[in-house]
């Protein structure tokens, strides 16, 4: 208990809960209007002022955390100004009409901007103390937990549960086995790519990376592949579904079980209609719920493997499990339980939705900051050493193809009226 204020994992929980507490008093993160040619047309003084105040607030609470963690909050603040400016640029670019139509959201632009700077002029040394990608995204994942509401899950029905929870473990295990046994990739890289592909992309990759103690470059590689294929699948799957003549129910379930990012799932489902969009979003929400469970299982398995390689005197299983367990997952689960079984029954669905409108906007902003940091931390020369002859791409493509085929079969089985 003495370390609950001495690690980033725990601080991600405290900062996430602080945002929950303040959600009724703080404004939503403003969204920029869409623009086509004139980028300056969207710069409204009021929105810029509110966004600036929000970023100042975030810098203050993270600086306080830096101070408690015995890190230089002054150096953090200096670099955070630079990261904030880049984040605003990413948000502006994501609101461009054509980019938005093709699914290039804030995550794509944030990662791209960061990578361009890192691999051309190089990331300035004075910015590096502010590159807290995992800290930002872990806090965002705590906020994501509040969006997983059990009353909604209970009302979803068995078919969506089967697609989300039946297919995902099979794809995850098969991909990991293929990556380690046949492609001879190291187990950390294999599990991060496998989790990103089978569960829900970036969020799952972060959780798996934390549980397995994967290298930063391995995480970046998985995130990059996930984002590229998410865009391709978001554009291509609705077209394929229409050509195949699938029903909205089957098509929506197929999209929800295979496309990685929640936003892309909703966008792709919307092309097929409201019914497909709702089913797609529900299946993806159920997959999101598995983040905590899978992170825990990975921590247990990795701890067991270390235990076998060492003597009993050298390592305590429970201590190592606790060290490997991503603590922010406790916040993710806690937020889900609190919103599901305390807030939801007391204040009702409408009030909870109003709170979530605020927390979702902060989650997206934190993810934007995180992707800027990931880009600034990543170097193509270092990433190249993890490509191992293109094997990570082979793992992702083969795994995603298996995921597409199996999910389609199960979605057809449970949503076509044959079994239910």
TrEMBL record:
Topological type in the membrane: Multi-pass membrane protein
Keyword GTP-binding: no
Entry annotated with the keyword Protein transport: no
Transmembrane segments: 12-30, 42-64, 76-97, 103-123, 160-179, 191-210, 222-241, 253-273, 285-304, 325-348, 360-380, 392-415
Main location, first listed in the record: membrane
Record-level GO cellular component terms: plasma membrane
Pfam families: Cons_hypoth698
Extent of the signal sequence: none
InterPro entries, sorted: UPF0324_pro (IPR018383)
Keywords: Cell membrane, Membrane, Transmembrane, Transmembrane helix
Cellular localization per UniProt: Cell membrane
Record family assignment: Belongs to the UPF0324 family.
Descriptive protein name: Sulfate exporter family transporter
Protein's organism: Arcobacter sp. AZ-2023
């Amino acid at each position: 208990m003495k370390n609950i204020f001495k690690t980033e994992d725990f601080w991600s929980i405290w900062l996430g809960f602080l945002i929950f507490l303040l959600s009724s008093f703080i404004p939503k993160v403003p969204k920029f209007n869409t623009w086509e040619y004139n980028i300056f047309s969207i710069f409204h003084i009021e929105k810029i002022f509110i966004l600036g105040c929000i970023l100042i607030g975030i810098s203050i609470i993270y600086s306080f955390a830096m101070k408690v963690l015995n890190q230089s909050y002054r150096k953090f603040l200096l670099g955070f100004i630079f990261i904030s400016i880049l984040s605003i640029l990413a948000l502006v670019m994501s609101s461009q009409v054509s980019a938005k139509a093709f699914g290039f959201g804030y995550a794509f632009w944030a990662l791209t901007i960061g990578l361009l700077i890192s691999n051309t002029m190089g990331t300035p040394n004075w910015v590096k103390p502010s590159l807290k990608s995992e800290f930002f995204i872990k806090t965002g994942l705590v906020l994501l937990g509040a969006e997983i509401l059990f009353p909604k899950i209970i009302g979803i029905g068995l078919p969506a549960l089967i697609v989300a929870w039946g297919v995902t473990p099979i794809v995850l295990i098969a991909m990991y086995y293929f990556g380690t046994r046949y492609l001879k990739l190291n187990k950390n890289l294999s599990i991060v790519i496998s989790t990103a592909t089978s569960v829900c992309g970036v969020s799952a990759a972060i959780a798996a990376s934390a549980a397995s103690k994967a290298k930063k470059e391995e995480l970046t590689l998985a995130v990059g592949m996930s984002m590229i294929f998410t865009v391709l699948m978001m554009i291509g799957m609705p077209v394929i579904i229409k050509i195949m003549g699938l029903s909205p129910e089957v098509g929506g379930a197929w999209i929800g079980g295979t496309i990685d990012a929640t936003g892309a799932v909703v966008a792709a489902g919307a092309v097929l209609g409201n019914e497909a969009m709702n089913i797609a979003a529900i299946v993806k929400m159920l997959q999101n719920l598995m983040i905590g469970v899978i992170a825990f299982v990975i921590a247990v398995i990795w701890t067991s493997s270390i235990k076998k390689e060492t003597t009993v005197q050298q390592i305590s299983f429970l201590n190592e499990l606790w060290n490997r367990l991503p603590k922010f997952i406790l916040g993710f689960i806690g937020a889900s339980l609190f919103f599901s079984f305390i807030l939801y029954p007391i204040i009702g669905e409408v009030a909870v939705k109003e709170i979530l409108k605020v927390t979702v906007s902060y989650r997206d902003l934190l993810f934007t900051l995180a992707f800027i940091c990931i880009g600034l931390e990543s170097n193509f020369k270092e990433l190249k050493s993890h490509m191992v002859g293109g094997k990570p791409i082979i793992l992702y493509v083969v795994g995603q193809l298996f995921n597409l085929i199996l999910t389609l079969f199960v979605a057809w089985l449970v949503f076509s009226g044959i079994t239910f």
